[in-house]
Amino acid sequence: MMSxxxxxxxxxxxxxxxxxxxxRLPLATPAEVDIALLGIPYDGGATNRVGTRHGxxxxxxxxxxxxxxHHVSGLSPYDRARIADCGDVPVDxxxxxxxxxxxxxxxxxxxxxxxxxxTAGGDHLITLPILRGLASDGPVGLIQFDAHSDTYDIxxxxxxxxxxxxxxxxxxxxxxxxxxxxxxxxxxxxxxxANYDFAKACGVRIIFIEEFMARGVDDVMDEARAIVxxxxxxxxxxxxxxxxxxxxxxxxxxIGGFLTREAQALVRKLEGLxxxxxxLVEVSPxxxxxxxxxxxxxxxxxxxxxxxxxxxxxxxxxA
Length: 319
Known about the structure:
The protein has helices spanning 55-62, 77-80, 96-113, 127-134, 166-172, 197-202, 209-215, 217-228, 260-268, 292-315; strands spanning 35-40, 83-88, 116-121, 140-145, 176-186, 205-208, 233-238, 275-281. By secondary structure, it is an alpha/beta fold. The chain has an eight-stranded parallel sheet, sandwiched between helices. Helix content is 32%, strand content 16%.
């Protein structure tokens, strides 16, 4: 049965016309939908190059190029679930700690409404308050596609909350089960030989890009699926896991990353997991005026959307 929430038909209204929303979907509230597409326009956690606060708006623009039906599965997420653009989460660009509280409260309400959130950031710190809002029933599993571990402790002598620390805080706060946590695609020189010690000591599974290249998508994702199992799991995708030749507009680029087709294949292998939400972060439009990075982000967001639509469909009672 067709969803009552449909993208604007590009055969009726040109892609460059109309009000930009994620996937050209209608606006709604989380209480009205199965999947809530959300933006968090915030980069107060960035430690160097900024601009990801503009990510959600430009991802909306570029998402006008996405279409209805996934070319591999032959399925449309809009036929499987009620999906809408639920707007931007409130933030305070002048107050980081207040912003974390605003975000976590918002996602607690999204969870209460029964919607699965799919979020465009924003820097990677936003995932911490999202998890605070969603993991109220106990620690969840986590699959992280990223060039960086983001399990640092402190920056600049006192900063415990920035885009390099969210998953250390998430483990410390009991939001994520480190034994059900896998990081895929990590690479690049590090500041200190001990940078990965915390994650490794907690039991986080780190798969560096070199191991990924030796094993391939299917083998790596089979392990990731086994690690998180069938219990609730969150998915976070940092655009910098993709090689900067294909996604240059990000704050901390690292050469030698995934090709976009590998990134798409990785996300598709999430199908069938018990996913409670997902995000796409660290797209910085000012660092890529061509729009390529935002287009890549919108396309990965569509891949995540298709996976979440499968989660919704699997939860529906049998006819």
